[in-house]
Amino acid sequence: MITPTTNNIFSADTLNEWLAHLEQLHPNAIELGLKRITEVGKRLNLIHFDAKVVTVAGTNGKGTTCAYLEKILLDAGFKVGVYSSPHIHRYNERLRINGLELDDQAHCDAFAIIENARETISLSYFEYATLSCLYLLQQANCDYILLEVGLGGRLDATNMVESDVSVVTTIGIDHIDWLGCDREKIGFEKAGVFRANKPAICGELDVPQSIIDHAQSISAQLKLATKDFAFKMLDEQHWSWTGQKTLLPIKQTLMPMQNASTALAVIEALDITIAPEKLIASVENATLAGRLQAIEGYGCDFYIDVAHNPQSAQYLATQIKRLKQLKPACCKVHAVVGMLSDKDMTATLSAINSEISEYHFADLHCYRGAPASLLLEAYQSSEYNNHNVTCYENVLGAVDKVVQNISASDIVIVFGSFHTVSDILTK
C-alpha cells in the first residue's frame, strides 16, 4: 500500500510499488550525466567505500567478467558485493552479497533512504536503483565491490564511485545514440571509468587508440590484453593464461575465455595471493544466468543467451559451432529470436547466420520491442539469408511450436535480448 506522508516524500509497502514509482520519476528512461546522482551520493557518503571497488565497463562481457571475479573472490574467502544490470527476471537480481540476493524489504528500506535524501532532485530509474544498491553495499561491509556499468562509462551513474581498479572488457558498436557511431568514440566513453594513477585493465583484443590515449593522459596504470596478459588454446578443451604468472591447463567452458582472462588480470592488479589451483577451479566453475544457459525439460539441447548486438552474436556463433561438433551430422539449430528495435538487427543476424538452420522470429512485447516483421526485414538484408523463417506473436508461442517439431538431436537457441530470455525463465 502506498502511504502518504506529511512532507510529501513518497512511501510504499511493496517493492512493486516502489519500482512503479521509479518509472514515473524522470521523463527520460536514459539520461547520462553525473551531476544529479553525485549530489545525492555525497549526501549519503556513497562516493568512497572502505571496500576495494572494481568498476567494469564494456560493450559485451561485463556480466561474465564480474561473475568470474565474484567466483574467484568468494572462493578465496572474501565478502563480495556485486551490482549489475539489467535484471532478467526479478529486480532483486541486480544486487548480490556473498552470492545471494537481498529480500524485497531490504530494497524497499533502501529506496526510502534515497527518497528522503534526494529531496527535489529528479533521478532516472537507473540512477535511483544505483544509489539504493550502493547504499545497501555500503551497509554490508564488503571486502570487495564489483560495479557493472549500465551504459557507456564516463557518464554512467556507477562512475560517481571512486574505484580502485577499472576495467573495459570489449568494444563494439552499440548504443550509438548515446556513445557515438565508431569504436574510437565508444572506446573513449568506456575509458571514462579509468582513474588517475590506478590500475586500468582492458580486455579488448583490438584496443581503440582512444583508450590508450585517455589512460596516458591521466597516468592510469593501463594493462592491455595480448600485451600485458593473454590467453591461448592448448588443445580443443583446454587453454592457458599468462600475466605475471602462467596458469594451465584451464578447462574450456561455455563462458568466454576472453572475459576470464580479463578477470584474472584484475586479480593480479588487486595484488591478491591465491593458489594457482584455486584460481583455475574458480574460473572453471563460474556461471552466469542467461549466458548460453542450458534449460532442461524441452526434449533437446535447449539454451538461452542474452546476445543482442553483432559482437555478442559473433561469440555466440562460435559457441554454437562447438556444440554442433558434439552432435550428429543431422543436427539442426533452431534460433528463436526477439530483439529491441533500436539494435542493429541486420548485422547481429549476419554474425550468426552461418550456424543457424532455421529462424523463428517473435514479437517482443516490451518498451522498444521489435515486431517479428521488423526482424524479418533485417534478416532479408543480412548475409546468407537463405534459411527457413517463421514469424510468431510472442517468444513462448515460438518456442512451443519449435519443440513440437524437432528431433532430440537438434539444438534450440533463444537469444536477442534480456527480455527475450526472461520470457523463458518466467514460464
Fold and architecture overview:
The strands form three sheets. This protein has an eight-stranded mixed β-sheet with strand order 4-3-2-5-1-6-7-8, sandwiched between helices. It has two domains: 15-285, 3-Layer(aba) Sandwich (UDP-N-acetylmuramoyl-L-alanine:D-glutamate ligase), CATH 3.40.1190.10; 293-425, Protein-Tyrosine Phosphatase, Chain A (Alpha-Beta Complex), CATH 3.90.190.20. A hairpin with a 2-residue loop joins strand 3 and strand 4 (100-101). The chain is 37% helix and 17% strand. It is α/β, with parallel strands linked by helices.
Write the layout of secondary structure elements.
Elements: H1 15-25, H2 35-43, E1 52-57, H3 62-75, E2 80-83, E3 95-97, E4 100-101, H4 104-118, H5 125-140, E5 144-148, E6 165-168, H6 176-179, H7 183-190, E7 199-202, H8 209-217, E8 221-224, E9 230-233, E10 238-242, E11 246-251, H9 257-269, H10 276-285, E12 293-294, E13 301-305, H11 310-325, E14 333-337, H12 345-352, E15 358-362, H13 372-380, E16 388-392, H14 395-403, E17 411-415, H15 418-425
Parallel strand pairs: 1-5, 1-6, 2-5, 6-7, 7-8, 13-17, 14-15, 14-17, 15-16
Antiparallel strand pairs: 2-3, 3-4, 9-10, 10-11, 12-13
